[in-house]
Each structure stands twice: as structure tokens, then as C-alpha cells.
Amino acid sequence: MTLRRLGAAAVLAAVTPLVPVAQTGPIAAAAPHECAVLQTLDGSAPFVSDPAECAVKTAPASTFKVPHALIALETGLVIDAKAAVPWDGTKQPFPGWEKPHSLDSAMKASVLWFYQRTASLIGRERMLASLKRLGYGSDTYEGEQTSFWVNGDLAVSPMEQLAFVSRLVRYELPANRRHMDAVKAAFEMPPGAITNAAGTHPFGLTWPARLVVRAKTGNTTVAGERISWIVGHVESRRRDYVFAARARGQELSMQAGAELALRTLNARPPR
Do the Cβ atoms of 196 and 189 come closer than 8 Å? Predict the structure, then answer.
């Protein structure tokens, strides 16, 4: 096992399964596959809702913007995370994308064109080398340079996402600390809410006040299956936590992953 795999392996070593609840009544459609993982930064064993599902790799969708932003900074492609890049005037699916964006604002609004542009400029060779250095997910892809994170070419499990975010907020990644701080600032959310391409959505944590929440959602469809993610970090007065949640199935809302994470977090407040 290589050193870059140790973070995910350590997390997998000790898990707390969630006892399933019996289903009663008719089932209109197949229930989505769900995974939620949560861990304190003190090294305690994580909560893992379903160990088998949480080991399954899928496309990371827009949660890949977290390592992608770090790679853009590390390669020198982006020098200033707040410097805006002009929009080229191409019609976009969301009004909020039709304006200049910086690495920071494009993270918060999940602006696909910005990160497609950076992926093209980073190039395949540097991107692959960076993925291997960071130890992110399957750390390789073979297809299109501007869509490998949404089409299933690059794949990552919730356990691997948890390990990556933990290494980021602990400053354990092989990257410049200033760049890691810029990425942490880019996915810091407003109080009581999360933002993405569709706008601002409530994220009502019932934990004690004075929280800082960093989160990145992601949604895509691969081979007819919807995938909805969120990964993040919660700073509280008592403890820091990292988390990841993913739902996948035939019919899911864009907030399915975030809703799953919120239920999990609110059921396990800091002690």
C-alpha cells in the first residue's frame, strides 16, 4: 500500500454500521443507494451508514472542484483565487454562470465552464500527475479532458472523499498551505445555507451556534443513474468534523446528497 492510500485505508479500518429499518407498505420505486460518513478530526472511528455502499466508487461530479481548485493553484495556472476570468458569452444553463468568475466564486456557484477551462489549460499530463500526487480516488482517467469528473471516467468512493477532505483541512496534502487555505475559503458556505449552481439552499444544522461549514455539492447522471453528492467540513466550538454523503438512483433531486448529510449531522451533534 502506498503512502497516499493510507488516509482512506485508515478510515476504512474501523466503521460503525447503521442498522437498517424494515420497509413496510408498497414500494413505488427502488430506494436510492445511500451512504453517509462522518468523522471527527481527532482520529476517532468514523460513523459509516453502510460500509459496502460507502466503498463503491462513482463519478465525483462537482465535488471534484475541491481537488481541481487545489491543482489549478499548485500548477500556477491560477495565482489569485479571487481574480475573475471573463465569461465568453456562451449561453449557460444557469443565469449565475453568465458572468465573470474567479476560482473562489466558481466554487461557490459550481460554475462548470470555469473549471472546464482550467482543466483544458492544466492539460492531461499535469492533471494526471497531480491526481496521483494527491491520491484522489482512482487518480486516473482516459477520456475527455473537460468532463472526466462527471461522466464516470474518474471515480471516487465516499470513504475516499472523507479521507481527502480530512487531509485537506489537516494540511496533510502534499501542497502549499496557502493554496489549501484558498481552497478552504472557496468552499466555505454562508451561515445556515449551502450554495451551488441552482442557488442558495437552507442547510439547517441544529448544532450549537458559531459553526463554520465548508461544503461542496455535486450532481451528475452516468448510465441512467443519478448521483448526488456533498462533501465538507464543520468547525464547531467543541470539535471539527469532516463528512461525505452520496445518494444514487433513478430519480433523485439535486439536493438529495445534501439532505442525507444534514439528517446524518443533525442526528449526531458534537458532544
Answer: no
Cβ neighbours around 175 below 10 Å, total: 20
pLDDT digits (tens, 9 = 90+) for 35-80: 999 999 988 999 999 999 999 999 999 999 999 999 999 999 999 9
Q: Which of 44, 49, 62, 138 is catalytic?
A: 62
Whether the Cβ atoms of residue 241 and residue 158 lie closer than 8 Å to each other? no
Q: Is 62 among the catalytic positions?
A: yes
pLDDT tens digits, 157-216: 999 999 999 999 999 999 999 999 999 999 999 999 999 999 999 999 999 888 999 999
Nearest to 230 by CA among 249, 211, 254, 198: 254
Q: Is 97 helix (H, G, I), strand (E, B) or coil?
A: helix
Encode 241-263: b = buried (16+ Cβ within 10 Å), e = exposed.
Answer: bbbbbbbbbeebeebbbbbbbbe
If one looks up domain 7-11+30-267 in CATH, what number appears?
3.40.710.10
Per the CB < 8 A criterion, the answer to whether 169 and 76 are in contact is no
**Cβ neighbourhood burial of 218 (10 Å; 0-12, 13-18, 19+):** buried
Is 195 exposed, middle or buried (CB count within 10 Å of its CB: 0-12, 13-18, 19+)?
buried
